[in-house]
Design a protein that fits this description.
heterodimer; A: 275 residues; mainly alpha; MetI-like fold; 2 domains; 12 helices; 0% strand; B: 381 residues; alpha+beta; Rossmann fold; OB fold (Dihydrolipoamide Acetyltransferase, E2P); 6-stranded mixed sheet; 5-stranded antiparallel sheet; 22% helix; PotA_ATP-bd (chain B); ATP-binding (chain B); Spermidine/putrescine import ATP-binding protein PotA (chain B); transport (chain B); ATP hydrolysis activity (chain B)
Chain lengths: 275, 381
């Protein structure tokens, strides 16, 4: 009997050994996703009073009327606009800087190369405060444009990093081959350089969008009376949290997951086509 | 070879390239005739690739002129030269499939219907089935053929090949050498081929230019370079040579008689690239396979008129078709002798006294002022 029990114990230990990685993975996933689950669950709550911290009863009221809270959808649309423009600006500028840093030797190259990472390393509060000082000294009206300028600035370094890595790993012979095959400088760039650098540029752009969309500290300093979505959430958290915030949060999470799933599906289909 | 059409001639006139204080290519004059298969042969860093890139327009010469036919193309960018390149490691566009890779040049020149041409070209290199695959899905040999097809489809006046077979394994390399040679004969385009592999250069090319330290050491047909090298570098870099230090003794008709140790060696004066003043030093060269080896007891059987040297066998290695001997001689240490394994003499083992003999017609003479080891593997290492 003893031997049987110990054998049983042995097999369960073995089972644990074999599945330890999966178990650890599931735990990590749970840890990461639990906050999202809470947000989602509470988006269906019907809270009593102003705060949405205690479960009362199921309701879809907030989902049917996501813009029901004053200024919420306005701030969301402003945040999306700023994120889009900041992404565009930072990606174009950042990609150009990355190409310049990798391909050309110029006087201040070393300095630019290290200074470009400063926004990444510097505490956001410091950057926010110094930007505000700059804007005030220049007498610039705080609002949409100051937010946009600030966002482009701190997104730049991330785009440069992402694109630079890609451009550095690019074989310079590919562009030589293009030039050899009757492509002028512009054609070479459009037909060969850009498509090959595209994954790096796309990664930089996605990063920039995410960073810009949820930035709070720098935005808060330089927004003046303008209110972006993160600022709106912060502000309402002082006075009471409308369920609609959970609705928007859940919707964004779902959109992000769908995008990832779609890109994975396209990727695997392409792979199958190739094989 | 016809002399009528010279539009595919490549003519380099006084072309040179320096990087700072380093001279990659010394002023160089070179003519590659239309339709020929021309090889630039040399060790890495000898300037052969730089020369090729100057023809392609990817490198700007420091001085000199590049002519294609009668046209001066020195100032033209690569995309305006009727020249295409097969790059080392191919440089296929990873984001385009095989069809689009091959069609690239045609599309850039605004050719509307490329389908038929691309398909024909893919058939020529036997890759019709692979048209929709991406480069990374093909094997090395297939990628190599795509690179050739991508260049050839443009009907360039000159095709430049930069170590195109370097990344392939030996067997595939042999196969591609014949394949490239076949394609060249078929399309009749001038090929300029850069390689460090002397066997590859000799197998494929009509004319070989041996380069060393930014200069062309010697230029000629492969057999001519091999049989009658004019510098120690060429003698050692192309195959193996035995070089023996000797002194000019007398001249007898078309021959020069030289003193080496106690013996005399004869050398046809037309095969000597050194000055032949009496008392002058000359390096006498002979290829290992041109030498016959007999045991010292049979020395009487050697016909008259042959160059002969005595020595002892230091080492013998049997390699199947032949046996390679290393002979120690008072005149010259470590002479290499390759003997075909037809009838093997059992007495020829290490320690045996032997006589080496060869025809004076297989002897060549070099200027003794040169480094005797230039171009050998020991020197390269």
């Amino acid at each position: 009997m003893d031997t049987r029990r110990s054998r049983k114990l042995g097999t369960s230990v073995n089972w644990l050994k074999r599945h330890l990685v999966v178990i650890a993975g599931l735990f990590t996933l749970g840890f990461l996703l639990l906050p999202n689950v809470v947000v989602t669950v509470f988006s269906f709550n019907n809270p009593k009073g102003r705060f949405n911290y205690e479960w009362q009863e199921f309701s879809t009221a907030a989902w049917t009327d996501p813009c029901g809270v004053a200024d919420l959808c306005g701030s969301l649309s402003l945040s999306l606009q700023i994120a889009l423009w900041a992404t565009l600006g930072a990606t174009v500028l950042g990609a150009m800087i990355a190409f310049a840093l990798v391909r050309y030797r110029f006087r201040a190259r070393g300095a630019v190369n290290s200074l470009i990472f400063l926004p990444m390393a510097m505490p956001e509060v410091v950057m926010a405060a110094s930007l505000l000082t700059l804007f005030l000294n220049m007498g610039v009206q705080l609002g949409f444009w100051t937010i946009l300028i600030a966002h482009i600035m701190f997104c730049l370094s991330f785009v440069v990093t992402a694109v630079k890595a890609r451009v550095m790993s690019m074989d310079p012979r590919l562009e030589e081959a293009a030039r050899d095959l009757y492509a002028g400088p512009f054609q070479t760039f459009v037909r060969v350089t850009l498509p090959i650098a595209a994954p790096g540029i796309a990664a930089g752009a996605l990063l920039a969008f995410a960073l810009s969309f949820d930035d709070f500290i720098i935005t808060n300093f330089n927004a003046g009376s303008t209110v972006t979505f993160p600022m709106f959430v912060w502000g309402s958290a002082q006075r009471g949290t409308p369920v609609q915030i959970n609705v928007i949060g859940t919707a964004m999470f779902v959109v992000a997951v769908l995008l990832v799933l779609a890109s994975m599906a396209i990727g695997s289909r392409r792979k199958r086509q190739k094989a | 070879m016809t002399t009528k059409d010279s539009s595919g001639d490549v003519r380099l006139s006084g072309i040179s390239k320096t990087y700072g204080s380093f001279t990659a290519v010394h002023p160089l004059d070179l003519t590659v005739p239309q339709g020929s298969f021309f090889a630039l042969l040399g060790a890495s860093g000898c300037g052969k690739t730089t020369t090729l890139r100057m023809i392609a327009g990817l490198e700007e010469p420091t001085s000199g002129t590049v002519f294609l036919g009668d046209q001066d193309v020195t100032a033209l960018p690569p995309y305006k030269r009727p020249v295409n390149t097969v790059f080392q490691s191919y440089a296929l566009f990873p984001h385009l499939d095989i069809f689009e890779n091959v069609a690239f040049g045609l599309r850039r020149r605004g050719v509307k219907s490329v389908k038929k041409q691309v398909e024909e070209m893919l058939d020529l290199v036997q890759l019709g089935e692979q048209a929709r695959k991406k480069p990374h899905q093909l094997s090395g040999g297939q990628q190599q053929r795509v690179a050739v097809a991508r260049a050839l489809i443009n009907h360039p006046k000159v095709l430049l090949l930069d170590e195109p077979l370097g990344a392939l394994d030996l067997k595939l390399r042999r196969q591609m050498q014949l394949e490239l040679k076949r394609i060249q004969t078929e399309v009749g385009i001038t090929f300029v081929h850069v390689t460090h592999d002397q066997e590859e250069a000799m197998t494929m090319a009509d004319t070989v230019a041996v380069m060393n330290a930014g200069r062309v050491e010697q230029l000629g047909a492969p057999d001519e370079l091999y049989e009658n090298p004019r510098t120690t570098f060429v003698a050692n870099f192309l195959g193996t040579s035995n070089l023996i230090e000797a002194e000019v003794d007398t001249k007898a008709g078309d021959d020069i008689v030289l003193k080496a140790g106690g013996g005399k060696l004869t050398l046809p004066s037309e095969r000597c690239s050194a000055s032949t003043a009496t008392g002058g030093k000359v390096l006498v060269g002979v290829r290992p396979e041109k030498i016959s080896l007999v045991h010292a007891d049979d020395a009487g059987e050697i016909p008259d008129g042959r160059n002969r040297i005595t020595g002892t066998i230091a080492d013998a290695s049997f390699i199947g078709v032949s046996t390679q001997y290393v002979i120690d001689s008072p005149i010259c240490p470590e002479l290499a002798v390759y003997v075909q394994n037809v009838e093997r003499d059992g007495r020829l083992t290490p320690g045996a006294d032997v006589v080496l003999h060869w025809s004076p017609a297989h002897t060549f003479g070099l200027d003794a002022a040169q480094d005797i080891d230039a171009g050998t593997e020991e020197e390269a290492a």
